[in-house]
# Entry
Amino acid sequence: MLDGCRVIDLTTERGLLCGQLLGDLGADVIKIEPPGGSPVRAQGPFFAGASAADRSICWWAYNRNKRGITLNLETDEGRGLLRRLAARADFLLESDNPGELARRGLGYGDLAADNPALVYVSITPFGQDGPKATYADSDLIIMAAGGVLILYGDEDRAPIRMSVPQAYLHACCDAAGAALIAYYGRLDSGLGQHLDVAAQESVGLAAQSTPLAAVIGGDDTRRMAGGAKMGPIRVPLVWAARDGLVSSVVLFGPALGVFTRKLVNFIHAAGFCDDATRDKDWIAYGNLLLTGVEPLTAYDRVKEQIANFFAHHTKAELFAIAREHNLLIAPLATIGEVLDNPQFAAREYWRHVEHPELPRALTYPGPFAQMSATPIGYRRRPPRVGEHNREVYLGELGLSEGEITALARKGII
# Structure
């Protein structure tokens, strides 16, 4: 899809996934790292426990389908080489703090002067401007600022971060989509543009409009381990099965009440709830609870009956019931169950990528989409530090062997 396109990837850990997505679509992505390698290479976990620059699983996760070179952008020579690379590129991706690259003469205006067709993508915590533009950030901060952290953790203590950072993954996906839109527009106009992607806004978009509840006078959704609170109503989202956990939504209203009614009808037929529970008005039930017509203790009794039903069945049994009767029940899978998932196996999702520097190939998650005409292929394993320096500097920029040796000696590449 992007065959023939060149991407210059200057991103830190904030933006690595964006370049990988464009690389998956066929673009030639050149990942630029400082001499010695990106700090991301020092982040674990590490393959076989060896904490070396070329053993970081974190690095491998977000850098397939890229070539890798080293370049010191703190030097005039390094910036000059970057400008030469950008002059022949279609995309440039960066995730420095706002204004940082412009300070070095590598902002959008600087590079677009040489290459007006360049699509320049900036990924930052809060965007290029505004009162928070220069705030410090972390995944925890961005998730909180985006409005969803309020749902993570136990209700009687402060919220907690997710075990795997998520905020910038949302931003990277939005950035890749925006880059494709800008590229499509360039096919008409011939001109690129600067794309300003704020991780806070990406997280807010992914929050299912929850932060808007207070604005329109609705009840705030609050955290509750294994569920959520809406006003005084405590709604479990995770239930214990006989051999693990399942997720099931027991809610009300015209959208979800119909599914709760079907679930309760099945549970009644199986002998796990009484007639009174079966006959409740599940469409209006939320309003009945909020107005006190139905006491919260009655809802607690309903949840006890549902929990008893789940506890008497395995995850597989509950999933089979859900599929047969169109119920909202899904098993929560362990990592091992995900790897052995027959659906993934049938679609050949897991891919084995050769790492010549290692004793064996590694298993990677598969493509994010299956395309019939332009299938995504894993053409390259993640690059080693400076692996393609000679290929790019000597073969593409036309530097001599002596120039490359001199640049390496001065710490520029």
Observations:
- Residues 6-206+348-409 form a domain with the Rossmann fold fold (CATH 3.40.50.10540).
- Residues 114 and 407 are 24 Å apart (CA to CA).
- The longest helix spans residues 167-189.
